[in-house]
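Attaching the record inline, Q. Sequence:
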Amino acid sequence: MASLSDPSSPSSSAGASEPLITGPVPPELQESVARHQAHLLALVESLRAAGVGEEIIEASVAQLLDSYRSELTAAIRALVRERSGD
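Structure, as predicted:
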């Protein structure tokens, strides 16, 4: 797993073999993605400030990303249905 201390290094969570979105984030999802990124950054900063180790931080972030993956996937499916006129 990539280290959270290197922001240029891609991080992956268990079971995530491909990104949910490739290319630019659709405008309809940008606010949600930005909000979750800000929350994850705040979490990492808080955990580091509390002296939590990198392995625990990475596990915590992976768990949150797994939860967000479900929410984001549902939003993407709804967006696709809306765009296709279903």
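The chain has a mean pLDDT of 77. Residues 27-84 form one domain.

More tomorrow.
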